[in-house]
Amino acid sequence: MHLGIVAHSTEGAALCFLSFCQEGFRRTGRHTHPDVTLDYIAFGASMDSWDAGDHAAVRDTLAISARRLADAEADFFICPDSTAHLALEVPGADLALPGLHIAGTVADRAARDGRRRVGVLGTTYVMDSDLYPRAFGSHGIDTVLPSPEDRRTIHRIIFDELVNGEFTAASRIRYRRVVEDLAARGCDAVALACTEIPLLLTPDVSPLPTLDSTRLLARAAYDTATGLRPLPTWRGGTAGG
Predict the structure, then answer these.
(1) Residue 4's beta-bridge partner residues?
(2) Separation CA 168–CA 166 (nearest Å)
(3) What is the b/e burial string over 175-201, where b = at least 16 CB atoms within 10 angstroms of the residue's CB?
């Protein structure tokens, strides 16, 4: 099958694309993978809409990418951006392609790992929403958010640094401290629910096991493209867990 990637932020989309392609080599030992096409309307085109809370306008932009991917004969899509899923879940006409839902993919892995209480790191848009609590809750998994001050810091670092390809030691230390606090509050894993965060908070420095939304989505897409899991049916709107 042919995968389409609806990109919404640069670093996360690039990491997901690379992870999907590299999964082919990891599994087969050869430089091969299913066909993949990426469509990217510049992130900045949607920032005014995000700031205004106009998720429907963002959905319209993402729908253009989905249509282009359908025209390129992709069979399904992924969008490696948790925040974008807040827009994709806005009611509207069906997207041109079925897609894998990032929060559902991460929650499925947490359930397979036996997690019971997961911290969530992401943009304030995501952390203030029910996107991940709903997905995790469908598996009976509790979610925990950082403190309000830590949420603001996480969001600022994402937009001032991570989406621009800046990954500093100081920010890594700050994120590590946030995760240490989540561990002290009883979390047994942390969901990296912004697709750039795995580039900063790697498993070797995280105080908790990480649920890497970027790579989990790429692997699920690979499984779908190779027939190991069924073609998704979600075409936008509120998704279940």
Answers:
(1) 37, 77
(2) 6
(3) bbebbebbbeeebbbbbbbbbbbbbbb
**Tokens (6 digits) for 128:** 């203030």
Q: Distance (Å, rounded) from C-alpha 176 to C-alpha 207?
A: 7
pLDDT in tens, the chain (241 residues): 999 999 999 999 999 999 999 999 999 988 899 999 999 999 888 989 998 999 999 999 999 999 999 999 999 999 999 999 999 999 999 999 999 999 999 999 999 999 999 999 999 999 999 999 999 999 999 999 999 999 999 999 999 999 999 999 999 999 999 999 999 999 999 999 999 999 999 999 999 999 999 999 999 999 999 999 999 999 999 875 4
Asked if 110 and 220 touch (Cβ cutoff 8 Å), the reply is: no
Q: Where are the alpha helices (DSSP H) in 114-239?
A: 124-127, 131-137, 148-160, 169-184, 213-225
End-to-end CA distance of the chain: 24
Sign, Cα dihedral of 129, 182, 203, 112: negative
Please give the Cα distance from 226 to 39 (Å, whole number): 21
